[in-house]
Amino acid sequence: MEAGGVEVPPLPALATWPEVWPVVLLAVAVVVGPGLLLALAAGLRGLLAWACAPPLGVSLLAVGAVVSAPLAPWSPRTALACLAVALVATALVRVLLRARSRGSGAPVEPRLRGRPARRARALTVLALLVGAVAGAGPLVGALSSPALVPQRFDAVFHLNAVRYVLDTGRGSTFDLGLLTSSTRGFYPAAWHDLVALVAAPASALPTGAGTGASWDLLPVATNVTAVVLAALAWPAGVVLLTRRLAPGRPVALVAAAALCGAFPLYPALMLNWGVVYPTYLSVALLPAALAVVLRALDVVGAARRAPRPARPGGGAVRAAAGPALLAAALVPGIALAHPTGAAGLAVLALPAAVVVLAGVVRAAWARPAGRRAVVVAGALGLLLAGGAAAAVVASPLVRTVAGVEWPAATTAPQAVGEALLGAPPEGRGGAAWWASAAALLGAGVLVARGRRRAVLVGAALVGGLYVVGRSTDSSVLTALWYNDPVRIAPLLVVVVAPLAGVGLAALVARRPGGRSRPVVALLLVVLLGAAATAAPGSGVPAAQRSLAQAYASDAAAAPLVDPQELALLAALDDLVPPDALIADDPHDGGALAYALADRRVLFPHLSGTRPPLERLLAESLDEAGADPAVCAAVRDLGVTHVLDLGGPSYFATPRTDELFAGLRAASASSPVLEVVATSGRSRLLAVRGC
């Protein structure tokens, strides 16, 4: 090995949030645009259209990536084609439903007109603006730059997966796998498809920090997409669900929006744990989906109580068709973001569905023909449920997920306290004392008014799952969530945030004299929401500090990649040909060469199956000068460079240390390698002797 090589220049100053405004606009267009067009084409208006836009768009894009996979690579052009087809199909379905829905029963909720309608629209817009600040503010405050790289285990895979979608056009959930030919298969790809659509046009912008073909393209696109979801998708869904829980109480909408960022369990926790971006996306879409499901159930209940049409049951079926189709259109996006999101939606909606179904069965049982229909439908339902359960149990993927064990971390009473106070496990934030108190008050308000008790039961079921996951090693109840309570915890906030809005509105809506002062109430809920987010006892400042540590790639002691290592990764675009293949140690951050420099790496993730040739090279590269089999493996694999960032091994074990020992030793001394560039202790080497 020859000493030397060029010393790469230090990493330039990281991009600031104002500098990446073009990427922010792109992310808004991708997250909201397609779904909003679909919602308008379906006849949705106002808050319902805006809140349903993100989940509808994710459904379109995720399903489109699957359906178009045999026909065209995933790209903005393919996404636009999918949108065009979906718009035509939506228009046709709307015409058919309109023709069949005449006389199907009274609407569930009256339309406001005149001054009340204008006031309601103004308050809804205010709620969405407040929610955008409340949702995104804590994240932007924690991340000093949108170019920061998460220092977490799964960040390597997710950043590389976005690059994989950009490079190969393979955006299908059923093809992504773990990014290698030997692991190709199912992995929920909606997040990666979404970020790829943001990054693809961003790469065509003028080169610069976070706005063009630079090393930070994917970190910026990823972080901006996460913030846009927290600013637009999450608050809009919370506001819509609050309106469903407490109709006719506009102050509650603003209060819920002001509190949507006051819980450390979401959004901050999902960007700090893993990083589990797919779960983060699925939870962001859940409040809107739950509101739509409740709306469909309300329509069924209202149609059942309306004057009976000539054909028994026909009115309820026709009236529920539109809302049910809308709910069904939202589920694929949530499931392809991550299946645990769809499972969470099922748990939250189950009690309400049971209540409505019980009413339908009681009404049908009163007629002889209805009894036969109940028996047939019940038998078919049991058969379908049994078949679905058998398919799930038999699935190798489900068995793999269910086989993950997390040891019990605390007692059941402690876990109950965490659930009630919204306290993140693993020390990633403090208890949300003020927001949780408002939520408990909101639950009391709903119970006192006799409204939506089934939704409270759904929240209690999720809380029970969290307690089981936190206080037991594993359980069949939590298997779909990898037996990981951290992935269950954000589901609580889906209902708790709207409840907090209801509670806060009830607290401030009337002055002691009993006279209503709407303007004063609005100001109070906004101020109290801000205090519940930022004041001592909120838990959010502690969550922000923990999140800042998780993204500290600008710190010299960063555990995955530090500034010197990032400087070498940023220089790879000039040092390594585009068709090269780099042998890397993923545990020192070298796998990020693919995401940050668009150079293929041998090991794109910290885990996964290693084929025999790759294992041989990792274990024995230092023996290349003496063992012909090692050089043969280098040639067969096409390895041209070796990257040794030289830092501490992240998430390493004795097994991984043994696996990559040869690669690390070869970097220090090997007759077949030549140093090309260095940055501090990090080295890029070229294969010369094989």
Portion in beta strands: under 5%
Number of helices, counting only DSSP H or I runs of 4 residues or more: 25
Low-pLDDT sequence parts: 103-108, 309-313
Number of strands: 6
What is the gyration radius calculated from CA atoms?
27 Å
What composes the largest sheet?
A: 6 strands, mixed
Descriptive labels:
690 residues, mainly alpha, six-stranded mixed beta sheet, 25 helices, 62% helix, 4% strand
Task: Explain the overall architecture.
- This protein has 690 residues and is mainly alpha-helical.
- 62% of the residues lie in helices and 4% in strands.
- It has helices spanning 21-41, 46-67, 76-100, 114-142, 153-168, 190-202, 217-245, 250-259, 277-305, 314-337, 339-365, 368-394, 396-402, 412-421, 433-449, 453-471, 485-508, 518-534, 540-550, 563-575, 593-597, 612-620, 628-637, 654-659, 661-668; strands at residues 6-7, 581-584, 600-601, 641-644, 673-679, 682-687.
- Strands 1-5-6-4-2-3 form a 6-stranded mixed beta sheet.
- β5 (673-679) and β6 form a beta hairpin.
- The longest helix is centred in the N-terminal third of the chain and has 29 residues, at 114-142.
- It is globular, with a radius of gyration of 27 Å.
- Mean pLDDT is 88; it is low at 103-108 and 309-313.
